[in-house]
Inverse folding.
Protein backbone atom coordinates (compact mmCIF):
# COMPACT_ATOMS: atom_id res chain seq x y z
CA UNK A 1 0.00 0.00 0.00
CA UNK A 2 2.69 2.48 1.01
CA UNK A 3 4.77 1.61 -2.04
CA UNK A 4 1.79 2.42 -4.27
CA UNK A 5 1.72 5.86 -2.64
CA UNK A 6 5.45 6.29 -3.14
CA UNK A 7 6.47 5.86 0.51
CA UNK A 8 9.76 4.06 1.12
CA UNK A 9 9.92 2.60 4.65
CA UNK A 10 13.63 1.65 4.55
CA UNK A 11 14.58 5.17 3.45
CA UNK A 12 12.34 6.67 6.15
CA UNK A 13 13.91 4.52 8.86
CA UNK A 14 17.40 5.39 7.62
CA UNK A 15 16.50 9.09 7.77
CA UNK A 16 15.28 8.75 11.35
CA UNK A 17 18.42 6.86 12.36
CA UNK A 18 20.52 9.72 10.99
CA UNK A 19 18.37 12.44 12.60
CA UNK A 20 17.70 11.49 16.22
CA UNK A 21 16.10 14.83 17.11
CA UNK A 22 13.58 14.43 14.28
CA UNK A 23 12.83 10.87 15.45
CA UNK A 24 12.21 12.08 19.01
CA UNK A 25 9.98 14.92 17.81
CA UNK A 26 7.88 12.63 15.64
CA UNK A 27 7.58 10.08 18.45
CA UNK A 28 6.52 12.81 20.89
CA UNK A 29 3.90 14.12 18.44
CA UNK A 30 2.53 10.61 17.90
CA UNK A 31 2.35 9.74 21.59
CA UNK A 32 0.84 13.08 22.58
CA UNK A 33 -2.07 12.85 20.12
CA UNK A 34 -4.22 10.71 22.44
CA UNK A 35 -4.00 13.10 25.41
CA UNK A 36 -4.62 16.04 23.06
CA UNK A 37 -7.86 14.50 21.81
CA UNK A 38 -8.91 13.72 25.38
CA UNK A 39 -8.17 17.29 26.47
CA UNK A 40 -10.09 18.86 23.59
CA UNK A 41 -13.01 16.50 24.26
CA UNK A 42 -13.04 17.45 27.94
CA UNK A 43 -12.92 21.16 27.11
CA UNK A 44 -15.77 20.85 24.63
CA UNK A 45 -17.92 19.03 27.17
CA UNK A 46 -17.25 21.70 29.79
CA UNK A 47 -18.46 25.28 30.03
CA UNK A 48 -15.03 26.69 29.13
CA UNK A 49 -15.99 27.18 25.47
CA UNK A 50 -18.86 29.53 26.31
CA UNK A 51 -17.99 32.93 24.96
CA UNK A 52 -15.41 31.54 22.56
CA UNK A 53 -15.93 33.27 19.17
CA UNK A 54 -14.88 30.16 17.27
CA UNK A 55 -17.44 27.94 19.01
CA UNK A 56 -20.20 30.47 19.51
CA UNK A 57 -22.65 28.94 17.04
CA UNK A 58 -25.88 27.66 18.52
CA UNK A 59 -26.33 24.90 15.97
CA UNK A 60 -22.86 23.44 16.57
CA UNK A 61 -22.78 19.85 17.68
CA UNK A 62 -19.99 18.30 19.68
CA UNK A 63 -18.25 17.06 16.50
CA UNK A 64 -18.41 20.40 14.68
CA UNK A 65 -17.06 22.17 17.74
CA UNK A 66 -14.20 19.66 17.87
CA UNK A 67 -13.40 20.26 14.21
CA UNK A 68 -13.55 24.04 14.66
CA UNK A 69 -11.16 23.89 17.62
CA UNK A 70 -8.74 21.67 15.72
CA UNK A 71 -8.75 23.84 12.60
CA UNK A 72 -8.44 27.21 14.30
Amino acid sequence: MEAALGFDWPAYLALLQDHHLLARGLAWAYHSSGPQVALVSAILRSDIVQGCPICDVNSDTYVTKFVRICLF
Observations:
- The chain is about 65% helix and 0% strand.
- The two ends are 32 Å apart (CA to CA).
